[in-house]
Specification:
This protein has about 450 residues and is an alpha/beta fold. It is built from 17 helices and 16 strands.
């Protein structure tokens, strides 16, 4: 991972590269290839996942399905473990790693979907997936690899609803700052594969679903909109969310009518917890935000910091999250004017951006900018906001790194942080002062990480 930041600005730190090592440690612990190989084993002809064992000889064929940003690396882990026992597979991801793609061939095919707004690739991916599973039967074993981003990457709108209508609804939900749980509640009720829809199509095959969680609380029904699990939400819940954000006049009449039909019982609900098809599905959550933050904590302690994980459920408006983290840094700085050891506080979660301007940025960059404004002038402090998948919003940055001097440095070259924040233009702000963190695609996705350093 590369940090595009002038380390001279961190001259109050004896070894500024320690920060990099802490960040890398957190990401490596949730590396999807590593996690899958650790969780799945093949012993004496049996696939072992958690406490479950599956005798390979009991099945006609073994199929592999992957949906999500981390699905390619997860698939690589499965193939390294099960190799020739996988008859065929289909992986849908956002960006194709050619080396992994070639490794998975010839029996496991990788295709792309669109994210965060579902597009024609997402429709094509859904069609290919439905065709792929059409011949699977009760004598087969299907291993499903689910990770964040899957909701947009594979899209099969309910009958009578167009892709354009789904796209416009998604844009409106993202703009108004709806949470991922709220967005996925609506998606599950407008899509044939979400909310247990894939499990319904796979029945009566035996299904093992391995999950990399990118949602707060690790709710299986919210990760990639729960394609193989039960759903607690209803059509009424979906309609209430549209009302909450006053989107009634911004959503197509066909979508509103479809939700009303669902409320009236004219359209079947999503799969519920007592549905018999779920008896053939087993789920294992392999990685989440807690694993990443704990790894960061342990590495920070090895690097000489006093460290603590303070939160794994950060959520809400990115600006407010940034201000709160900045206020916490101020409080700690005031309380400990002299430190025997530097402090590293770690928080995880997922904030949302309320789009009011036309700039470029992501939630982590917006958190960092708001935090930088809150800690302006503080000495010997540093903060990092990082997307674990390496992609913060529609940008090539994973996040940003800031100090108490960041805002002053920006003002000296004519930047206005207040205007940048109001215009949702954190990317160009941090680009000008070389504070962006760029990692490229990490192959994992477990929400966001925030590191608060006090020296």
């Amino acid at each position: 991972m590369k940090i595009n930041y002038d380390e001279k600005a961190l001259d109050f730190i004896n070894e500024p590269h320690k920060i990099n090592r802490i960040l890398l440690s957190a990401l490596k612990e949730v590396d999807s290839l590593r996690i899958v190989q650790k969780a799945v084993s093949l012993i004496n002809g049996k696939i072992e996942v958690g406490q479950k064992k599956y005798n390979i000889s009991d099945y006609r064929k073994i199929y592999l399905i992957g949906i999500g940003k981390a699905s390619q690396s997860m698939a690589m882990g499965i193939k390294k473990t099960l190799n020739e026992y996988i008859n065929s597979g289909l992986i849908v991801t956002k960006r194709i790693n050619r080396d992994i793609s070639n490794f998975l061939l010839p029996n496991i095919k990788t295709i792309i979907g669109d994210h965060p707004i579902p597009g024609k690739n997402s429709l094509h991916a859904a069609d290919e997936l439905m065709q792929f599973i059409s011949n699977i039967n009760k004598d087969d074993l299907v291993i499903c690899l689910i990770s964040g981003g899957g909701s947009a990457l594979v899209t099969k709108p309910a009958m009578g609803i167009s892709l354009d209508e789904i796209q416009e609804l998604t844009i409106q939900l993202l703009k108004c700052g709806a949470s991922i749980d709220e967005i996925n509640t609506i998606r599950k009720h407008l899509d044939m594969l979400k909310g247990g829809g894939l499990a319904k199509l796979l029945y009566p095959a035996q299904v093992i679903t391995l999950v990399l969680s990118d949602v707060i609380g690790d709710s299986l029904s919210m990760i990639a909109s729960g394609p193989t699990t039960s759903d607690l939400t209803t059509f009424a819940d979906a309609f209430d969310i549209i009302n909450k954000y006053h989107l009634e006049n911004k959503v197509s009449k066909k979508i509103l009518d479809f939700l009303h039909q669902g409320i009236q019982g004219l359209v079947p609900e999503t799969i519920k917890i007592n549905d018999f098809i779920l008896q053939r599905v087993h789920h294992e959550i392999l990685g989440n935000n807690q694993i990443a933050t704990q790894a960061g904590k342990l590495k920070a302690e090895k690097e000489g910091f006093t460290s603590e994980v303070i939160n794994n459920q950060l959520q809400g408006d990115a600006r407010e999250v940034g201000k709160k983290l900045g206020s916490l840094i101020r409080e700690v700085r005031k309380k400990y004017s002299q430190l025997e050891k530097p402090i590293c506080l770690i928080a995880g979660g997922e904030s949302t951006v309320i789009v009011q301007g036309n700039g470029l940025g992501g939630r982590n960059q917006e958190v960092a900018l708001a935090c930088a404004m809150e800690i302006e002038g503080l000495k010997n402090v540093c903060m990092v906001a990082l997307a674990t998948d390496g992609e913060d919003g529609p940008t090539d940055a994973a996040g940003a790194i800031i100090t108490g001097e960041t805002i002053m440095a920006a003002r000296l070259i004519g930047l206005n942080p207040e205007e940048s924040l109001a215009n949702n233009d954190s990317y160009h702000f941090f680009e000008r002062i070389d504070c962006l963190i760029k990692t490229g695609s990490t192959g994992t996705n477990v929400n966001d990480l925030n590191f608060l350093f006090i020296f």
